[in-house]
Design brief:
Radius of gyration: 24 Å
Number of strands: 9
Strand order of the largest sheet: 6-7-8-9
Structural class: alpha+beta
Number of domains: 2
Distance between the termini: 72 Å
Order of helices and strands: HHHEHHEEHHEHHEHEEEEH
Low-confidence stretches: 15-21, 191-201
Shape: globular
Mean pLDDT: 86
């Protein structure tokens, strides 16, 4: 009788293991092999608690679908993480395939990069995956820690000098818009040999360092610099990119508006305000070449 009971119990255990082998393997992987050590450093001081229509902040490091995966990358980037580890949920069968597509193509991640706080943006990603669903990601950031401190000091100094409390938000934006343009020249020589298809190409002209310190910039530099001041003003904003151009997008006075300092600072004419806080409809009327964008990502701009 005891032997029969033992056999029944053993068969029952074998059946349960067969039935639930995937979650059991994942449990062992997380709690035994890797000892449940998700690598989640403290957030950067520049991180923002901001959700967008395309991606949102998350605390879930066990993605169950593609949207969870995108939210996780956005969170890690915006929080300024140097590296992090997550585990594909056993129900998410396409997780590793989706990760392979994201890291090989880079299109989605480079656009998500435009939604994160500027000083935490990346220019290169390294990903290591294994068959058990463990994914380790490392970011090489656009700005060094020294540059971040130097830029933050400069932004605070200029903001105190240029902005007064009685200004409206539009007046504040116009003041910074004018300052950056008046103190920056378009780096024509640099732009002529920039490989716009290479997301890893970074120069001072393509970052906020150009307008703030060297006085030269291409569109990335104008846009990053303006974004820092928009953050300082506490206005929701992000950057929008087309195939070979980038500009600012900001929520001001109850509406989303486009803001393109590069095109307001033409090489051979005076500063203008053609692209100063305009609607998407107006943007399309003014230009349908450089200012086309993926409306499935930049949903606030539809």
């Amino acid at each position: 009788m005891k032997k029969l009971l033992s056999t029944i119990i053993l068969l029952g255990v074998i059946y349960l293991i067969f039935l639930y082998h995937t979650p059991i393997i994942q449990f062992l992987m997380i709690h035994v092999i890797y000892k449940d050590q998700l690598f989640m450093p403290e957030n950067s001081m520049y991180a923002k608690d901001q959700d967008w229509l395309f991606v949102q902040k998350t605390n879930d490091f066990y993605p169950k679908n593609r949207q969870d995966l995108l939210n996780l990358f956005y969170t890690a980037l915006d929080n300024g993480l140097e590296e992090f580890t997550f585990y594909c949920d056993e129900t998410y069968k396409e997780c590793l395939d989706d990760m392979q597509i994201l890291t090989n193509d880079n299109y989605i991640l480079s656009n998500i990069n435009n939604l994160v706080t500027t000083l935490n943006s990346y220019h290169r990603i390294y990903v290591n995956m294994n068959v058990l669903g463990r994914v380790h990601v490392q970011f090489e950031h656009t700005y060094t820690e020294d540059q971040k401190l130097e830029i933050e000091t400069k932004v605070n100094q200029l903001y105190e000098e240029l902005i007064s409390p009685n200004m409206t938000d539009e007046e504040k934006i116009r003041t910074i818009h004018d300052y950056i343009i008046e103190n920056t020249v378009y780096d024509q020589n640099r732009s002529e040999y920039i490989d716009t298809s290479n997301p890893f190409y970074v120069t001072t002209s393509s970052t906020a360092y150009g307008p703030l310190f060297t006085g030269e910039a291409v569109c990335g530099g104008y846009t990053d610099a303006m974004a820092l001041f928009l953050d300082k003003m506490g206005l929701p904003n992000y950057k929008i990119a087309s195939d070979n151009h980038i500009w600012n997008f900001v929520y001001v006075d109850g509406a989303w508006k486009h803001l393109d300092l590069t095109w307001d600072d033409p090489v051979k004419s005076k500063m203008n305000y053609n692209f100063f806080l305009i609607s998407t409809d107006t943007l399309k009327q003014l230009d349908r070449t450089e200012h086309t964008f993926d409306s499935s990502i930049y949903l606030e701009a539809k």
